[in-house]
Protein 1
Amino acid sequence: MANSFKNSYFYIGYIRRVFLSLLLCFSFGLTDEFNATWIENWQKANEILDTLKISKKQKEDILNSIKALKENENELKEFETLSLCVKNGDIECAKKSIEKYPKLLSYKFHPYGSLLTATLKYKNIERNKYGFIAKVDFGFDEKMFDFLVSKGHRVYGDDMLPFLLLQNEAVSDEKCLEIIKKMRDDGMDLGIKMPYNENLSLDTVALEYYKPKTAAYILKNGQKSQFFNGFPLKIAYGHIMGFFNENNASFEKKLKATPKSIELSKSEKYKKFIDKEFEILKVYLKANGDEKFIAEIEKIFTELNDKESLEKLEKLGYKLKKDNLENIRRQNFGK
């Protein structure tokens, strides 16, 4: 079992890019299709909705909203104006639209996130040679998000928005926790799976995107996903190995450190990176995560002669599998 987990996480950089591409597709690619042409073409709306993984109720709510806007041209124009106001971050403009037609916030016109999704920003997108998104500058219009919620926009309306919030680096851990709590109060099950990828759940995605406070809350109040216990392998072969690969200091086969990787492990850049890994590892252990896969992280630290990180593992309550730390101490201090 360990080997199957390990092999999966060797390709975590690839998986992560696919995941990011899929999320961004939903945040601004797919929702672009939900525009005025839907109002004019009822058949097209039905056909596209039938291809999406949404509930029967979600589909009915969207079709009812389309029907209502189709019957009221003034509201339709104002909805389009409101959408632009939100996209441009113009709160005064949005306020005028809502005051004119308060019902606009009750319309469910998008299957994934509605107007709240437009507060999540993505700029300077770079793709790799395979077409997947490799780099993106994240943004979050927190003031607009809070304004829409204060005016009555429902926080939880679908299962995609919480995942978009978790992976957006511009949404702080504290803000994400605040929103996830409101979503739970609004009826969200913390054990939901991401639409179109049932291998992804809130607990591991919160850990993956370095939101430890949010992850701790989800793990305390929800059920652990089937991939939770294997998360240390993601840290070892996805995060840590990924860090060395991205910095041109890859390990050799059979997890053998190279002079370049050992040199990098002495840098401030590495120490800052490892501190983040320990933050999420601490959450994992506090949630009674299985310790057996942490042995893979231990192997990496041992290869790097990283005494400080091995000591941190011990302080977290993890019992080192071998005399690795003592051997390193002897090498460093001649004992």
Protein 2
Amino acid sequence: MKKLMWIVCLVLVAAASYVYITRYDRAYEQEVMRQVVEHVEQTYGTSEPVVVKSYYNDKHRDKDKRYAVAVRADVLSLKPNEYITYRLQDGQVIEMGVIDEEGLPKTER
């Protein structure tokens, strides 16, 4: 019986640790969005409107890879339903590629 209780406790601690490590971090995502918007404005000049959407991908373990941002701006040569995705890597904004609006997550956090 004691062995079963230890196993249950161990499983609960492991599950809680996993949830804590991989939890959604809204403050970090806002920082990524701010840096990406600044990068787009510096690179392409100011443009109105700039559409910024979250492109959170929970399949990656690295925090920099999980939090990406999809951007559409007037100065970018994109189709109306396309976005350019950016993320941070070692504090620098890097471009990931172009995606369609259907590729964006449907859920709002």
Protein 3
Amino acid sequence: MLSSAFTGTVSANNFQSLPKPDWTFSIPDGHEYLSDSNVRITNQTLNFMSMDNQMYIFDKKTGKQLSKTDYTAGSNLIFSFFGTYAQVAQNGNVYILTSIKNSSGVIKQRLTAYNPNGKVLWMKYFDEKVRSISGVSIMPDGNLFVYLETASERVTSYRYSPEGKFLGKNNWNASILYGFVNGLLETINSTSKTSSRMTYFDFKMKQQFQYHFDFKEGIFSGFGPDGLLHFQKNHGNNVISFSAKTTKGKEVWTKKISNVSYYDDMETSMTVKRNVFSNGFTGIQSNGNFFIIDPKGIMQTVTASAKMYQTAPDGTVMLVENSKISIYQTSASAKTKLKLLHTVNTSELKESDPTFVYEGEGIIYVMTDNVQINRFDLNKQP
């Protein structure tokens, strides 16, 4: 495969220090952090789950607190992350699946819908006894999909409209681990001790394709936003090969990379939009270099000191480096080199244990050890 390195500089918006924040909000509940797991961002709101299971919803433009909700009240399921049990819709409504014990001691699953102001819109209860896996996801048409594992490779699912109208029920002789990811529902069947069958369905529950996975292929990473199936294989000596195949199993590309410390998890962005980052497969190496592999398998590398990174639906990526943040514009083709858009000197935060979340379009949220959320717009001139 071809590879090209990017080491030059272009005209960028350079900040010698952090600009004045658009707003600041202090979380009163002790030590907190921001990450792509406990934050969701819509067109109007910033949703944040605290470590003590409080969900804060802010007007993302002004920082005004719209609501604070104890979303696990009365539940024996405690969590502080979005994803499996909590989903945010584009209009800011939140759907949370928890388990509760009624007065008779029976545990039931409960789906609760909240609006951004914290008002409970509706609730649904489920009688199924869950074996271990349950969750809620938002389908591409905006409707809700609830899945409840009742036995090994046995799942019951329900579909509801955003208003809580019942749309249908299905029983699956398969496992469902994540609900809808990148537009499709994946079900899994074990076919032998060393193989599995993945079947994919659209939001109308119509089968789209199947893939028979042999464990000799390595690890199956999932169906990506690029419409390809992704795999990885450990070759020892800190070398991992990443590969992508069509839904019919034809290899599109394979790339061996050494000393990889973090890479794309194939999941939807924390920014709640119809579009997701789909310009390529991304990751960072242990030396801090960032890489992106385009859909044809051509890799670009940015020389950096990145400790972590986040992608955004607009095709940009934020690298959190040593005392610096860098934001690049990527392209779906490696023929177009990555373009440096913004750099910010963050050395003033060195002693404050900062955590970062990137919305895209040059918008960054920062939390420091004084438990303040700060919003910065890097499109403003330094």
